[in-house]
Description:
CATH architecture: Up-down Bundle
Structural class: mainly alpha
Helix content: over 70%
Number of strands: 0
Strand content: under 5%
CATH topology: Growth Hormone, Chain: A
Largest sheet: none
CATH superfamily: MFS general substrate transporter like domains
Amino acid sequence: xxxxxxxxxxxxxxxxxxxxxxxxxxxxxxxxxxxxxxxxxxxxxxxxxxxxxxxxxxxxxxxxxxxxxxxxxxxxxxxxxxxxxxxxxxxxxxxxxxxxxxxxxxxxxxxxxxxxxxxxxxxxxxxxxxxxxxxxxxxxxxxxxxxxxxxxxxxxxxxxxxxxxxxxxxxxxxxxxxxxxxxxxxxxxxxxxxxxxxxxxxxxxxxxxxxxxxxxxxxxxxxxxxxxxxxxxxxxxxxxxxxxxxxxxxxxxxxxxxxxxxxxxxxxxxxxxxxxxxxxxxxxxxxxxxxxxxxxxxxxxxxxxxxxxxxxxxxxxxxxxxxxxxxxxxxxxxxxxxxxxxxxxxxxxxxxxxxxxxxxxxxxxxxxxxxxxxxxxxxxxxxxxxxxxxxxxxxxxxxxxxxxxxxxxxxxxxx
Length: 415
């Protein structure tokens, strides 16, 4: 058995760098949006579709990804897929039309689709179960650092490289990360390696027929989708059009939101692990955080402008709470299904993120644009309100499904 320091160096660090890269790809369009709008003349709906393509490509591979992770292990699967992401970044950098950009963005989404799930799978193999919420939180913090890198550093590089140069550099960095994962992460026999393909598919069915899965998964998916859709694209137009910030101030605020996310991933993961030792289930911590996340959104919509900065920081911090539900659900299933549990949740998250990011763009497009590259403040408010209503509906389902199970005599795992 490896020491903790060896685990951190050879297991945690490579997967953390991979997720850093994944989140950088996910969030970079928020800063590059003005450049893309100017170069290609896109409207809000096209911009939303382009950026959201990452999510639908990501989501489309989640179910086969779960089978591959449980059969071949996280090391080989992630390293191979990162090669696809490198091709996508290169294609995006060379694209001349919206269609070519969409293809490149889709390859990126497909290529980084294992960066979180492979890490979660590896952590279930190498770390004790009581450490999962904390180590998952640090993994997500690495993603938050990627979101940080997608703000001020990208803005600083833009005058020197342009958005095409940014993606060429990301293609090279992706190849480097693929090598780190493949050559540094140790191999470990997976519990599902000997399963027949039919049995692996049956394992997916076990997850999707679980009432407990369907009780919490919709709220988790919509909470995370809102964070990804807004932080990855629509926070920038909101800060500009609703918050009336100058471009430099917008990038600075995106930086602070990403920093709040890092704090949330680490702080909430550590808090959930400690509360679990005191008898508080992880799903209770996750639910409380997601409700507070909704409160931040509501106050952004109706609160005074003077509250904007702390509310956006709260948005970033509490928006990370949905990730706690991954650990809660994984604890309710056998370890050999852990990859399929996480990818099942992730499928819903990224389908919802695709739909939400595009839907906000469609809703914003219902209002006339004040000018090229500008969006109506009322449209942005309507788009954000739509996402909040969806989360409220999922919260209502969580409560009602719990009451129904209690009336039926069912038990609700503590998770």
